[in-house]
Amino acid sequence: MEPPQSGGSERDKPNSSSSSPTPVVANFWKDFDLEKEKAVLDEQGLRIAENQENSQKNRRKLAESTRDFKKASAEEKLSLFNSLLKGYQEEVDNITKRAKFGENAFLNIYQKLYEAPDPYPALASIAEQDLKLSELESENRKMKVELEEFRTEATHLKNQQATIRRLEERNRQLELQMEDKVKETVEMKQRSLAEENQKTLEVLKEREESLQDQLRQAKESISTMHKLHELAQSQLFELRAQSDEDRAAKQSELNLLMDEVERAQTRLHSLEREKGHLRSQLQTANEDAGNKKSLEGGSSSPCSFLCMDSRSWEDSHYGQLRKRRICIVDWCCMCKHSGESPNHLLLQCETAQSLWSMVFCLFGVIWVMPGSVVEVWLVGWGRSVNPDMRTLGCCSFILCGFYGVRGIYEFLKGRRGQFGAKVGLCALF
């Protein structure tokens, strides 16, 4: 930046017409203390360089944090967003402080140099004056030599007063001419210096206007950055509010779904209880229907079951197993309990009976397998047991003993048809 030249400070302006610009320049730079200002400028330059280095480091850290934030998942972004935003805010504050420091340093040196006169015209004028002064001094010395010679001749020629007066007059004329030349030269230099000062002042005004424009643009950019920062914060608050609303809506939907699941489970339990109740009613109705059929058809003769001798028993299913030397172990693979009782060893266990009952109920078939050996004997003697067991169980065992599996199949086929005979035969064996 070119040093300003305004012809002195405000207190020196009234005396600018009568004083030379050289003393003004000398006084200004004497009061300015250039060595002290150099030390201050060195400190400010080191501070600015340090701020620039710190800013570059912070920007690299922010760039790394931004890359990590972009690579993170949605849940991690929520936790990293606050730290990232805080880092950007700190960087904006540091940039603002650095800009203020630079502006203050610039305005300080600008304010000091604003009223500084341009030393070049004064130095050039002094150089020219020194050159002319040396020429005048050499001429003056010559004239003094001539004058001394004239005086010497005058001492020798006392009678030549006219010559002396003429020489003195010549000397006065030369002195007057020299003074006129000096005044004319000084006036010319003053006019040229004033013109140069005016031009320099115009250049400085234009420079000041350009700097004012740059300062205004910097302030506008800072205000724009503040507005963008406020807009980003408002958008962040809106996103947080929207995420909270979405989370609350999802929570309410989840609560509604949980309530519906609980109601469905309650309804399922009630339907299961109703199903059990209906199953018990169906079993009771089937037992009543079987009792009525047994009363109408009559009971079988107790001798029919007793007629099955040892040979027919050996021809039965259990006898066939014994003939094949297949041992019935004292352990059930279904209920995992001991099978020492005749009910468990000779007949199917209760777990299998309940499973087959559930399967046959789906096809409308009533379970006719006896529950125990005692029930089989009661069927044979006509006791009050399940009527289907009375009619089917005893006859099935007798037919199986005398006629084999084919006989029981034909018997069941005549009572229930082909499908019922197959199902009943599966239930028996």
From TrEMBL:
Q: Does the keyword Coiled coil apply?
A: yes
Q: Where is this region: Disordered?
A: 1-24, 272-301
Instruction: Please list the coiled coil stretches.
Output: 71-221
Q: Where is the Cux N-terminal domain?
A: 20-129
| Pfam family of the protein (one) | CUX1_N
Keyword Coiled coil among record annotations:
yes
What's in the keyword line of the UniProt record? Coiled coil
Instruction: Please state what the protein is called.
Output: Cux N-terminal domain-containing protein
Species: Fagus sylvatica
